[in-house]
Design brief:
Elements: H1 2-29, E1 37-41, H2 45-58, E2 62-72, E3 76-87, E4 90-102, E5 108-119, E6 124-126, H3 134-154
Antiparallel strand pairs: 1-5, 2-3, 3-4, 4-5, 5-6
Helix pairs in contact: 2-3
């Protein structure tokens, strides 16, 4: 009988450790930080890419690449883009996501999310607004990238 109790206790400990390990593993990989900043965008994804391409052509220190696409026809797509700015004293990298969402009335709303901002020379930035240097990087992003690109479609 004592052997049965020890065996049961050993199995119970193993199950608790295994369940806890799996729970820890899943929680670490499914954690998603909220975006650093959200922007409304009036144009389609293809227009955004066209504007971004034109802006980077005019400003060769800026390069971008589409890094991922997630979602599907039923729930919509999310497009992930990395933008890098490089000059003599600047090496910043920004991670953005573009999504089209339906509001309560069924109207389409285009959103651009700044999800990461990094200064690769000073080793600053991150995925959260509270991380060191992110607030300053957001200001640079808006002044040097987001505002000019957003205004390209609205200018004649």
């Amino acid at each position: 009988m004592a052997i049965l109790k020890k065996l049961f206790l050993l199995i119970l400990i193993f199950v608790v450790i295994a369940f806890g390990g799996i729970l820890y593993f899943v929680s670490q990989f499914s954690a998603v930080y909220p975006p650093i900043k959200k922007y409304d965008y009036a144009e389609s994804y293809s227009q955004f890419l066209q504007d971004l391409k034109l802006y980077s052509t005019r400003n060769p220190e800026i390069i971008f690449s589409i890094t991922d696409t997630t979602g599907g026809l039923n729930d919509g797509y999310s497009y992930y883009i990395t933008i890098k700015t490089t000059s003599n004293n600047l090496k910043n990298e920004y991670h953005i996501a573009y999504e089209t969402q339906d509001d309560w009335f069924g109207n389409k709303k285009n959103k651009i999310y700044l999800i990461g901002a990094f200064d690769r020379l000073k080793n600053l930035g991150g995925y959260k607004i509270k991380e060191n240097g992110v607030k300053e990087l957001v200001k640079v992003f808006e002044k040097d990238l987001m505002n000019p690109v957003m205004n390209m479609s609205t200018s004649p």
